[in-house]
Every structure is written in structure tokens, then in C-alpha cells.
Description:
This protein is an alpha+beta fold. The chain has one helix spanning 2-45, and strands at residues 58-64, 73-79, 85-92, 103-111, 116-122, 127-131, 138-141. It has 2 domains: 2-50; 58-141, Immunoglobulin-like (Sandwich), CATH 2.60.40.10. A hairpin with an 8-residue loop joins β1 and β2 (73-79). The longest helix has 44 residues, at 2-45.
Amino acid sequence: MTNMTTPNLFRVRSSVGRTALIALGCALGLALVQVAAAGAGDVSVLRPLDDQLPALPLTAAFDKGTDPDVGPYILSLKNTSKDAIKVNVKIHLSVAFHANNKDRTVPDHTIDAGQVWTVSDLAAGDKVTVTADGFAPLELTVP
């Protein structure tokens, strides 16, 4: 009878040992994934400062609108470069109805060299972001 229980005991120990090794391997694998993920996050923080994009060659001025159909404020963007610039304008509204989107995107527009383009229907406190390929974004707040 002793001989019959010894192989069964060996199988049980073998099965428990195998399960323990699998659990240990999974725990070690999860720990290594977390370490790798933590290391990947640090890379974006350590960007060199040499890679800054040039400023957009635009001058910006806010004017009060006199026509109630164009809003209380108008943004004038003047292209000061010698080339045309295709810009994208996004407006984060300071006041919006809760059922509406708080962001408004103006369709892309090309501003020719030396020309002025206006963005209307702005309210006090709106945040305007002007972007163009190859340039750092221009962030403005309506007074």
C-alpha cells in the first residue's frame, strides 16, 4: 500500500510545483511589464530643448465688433512672412450651453503674405489656438 500512494503523492507535488512555477512566472512577467511601461513614460519627459518649433509669423490683434452678427470680439491675424501660411484655428468657448460642444473649429484658411484674416464671433475669455504645419502653436485669450 505504501508503494501505491507514493506515486500519487509525487503527482500531487509535481502538479502543485508546476502551478507554483506558472504563478511565479506570471507575477515576474507582470512586474517586468510595469517596469518597462514606467521607463517608457520617462522618455517623453526628457525631450531636448533643441527641437522647439519656430513661432508662427503672425501678429494678432483683438478688436471690439460693432456688428452684433459678428460677435463682441474679432481676432485679426496678419501674416508677416514672405510665404502664404495655411492655418487651423480652434476656439475653446468660455461660455457655452451645456448641451453644446465647448470647442469650435474654424475651417483651414490660407493667409497670403502680408494679408490679414479675421476670426469673428468671439467672446471675452475664449481661448484661441492657431496652428500651422512646421510652427509652434499660437495660443491667445480674448480679453
